[in-house]
Hints:
single chain, 177 residues, Rossmann fold, 7 helices
Amino acid sequence: MIVNGTSKITASHRSRTAAIYLRQSTLVQVRDNTESTLRQYALGDEAVALGWDREDVMVIDADLGVSGKFGQAREGFRDLVAKVCLGEVGAIFGLEVSRLARSSADFARLLELARLTDALLIDADGVYDLTNINDRLLLGLKGSMSEAELHILSGRLQGAKRVAAERGELRFPLPVG
């Protein structure tokens, strides 16, 4: 349940769509981490609990199984950005809004568009109003950390593969066909 910052939600926000943006990076995650998927879909209930009418809650799940590293390849993210640009979105819900995009450029663009159209970002940590400089700073920092996390994890994975290969123990499946 979201409790921090709910006073930032106004009638103007509730008069527009609550966009529930779902994503998981790989199809394996979608298949094996069903609890995460269920939690993301449950954000629609959170929007209703925060005052949106059920018919004003839009679920965008086209990016389940698509990496957030390259925003242009994600149809759902493009649709979300377009709806924010048109001023149709009052709030964007995500489990962790800083993970909406792994690219700082994509995330910064979304934050700026949300600021210009007075759309809130809402996650388990609270409600972020992008017209508030402190909320922008906090989300900018979280977004940068999310992108750095991807780089760090990739480096660890490559390092582990290199060490396993040096020991002659690197194993991976053969291509199908």
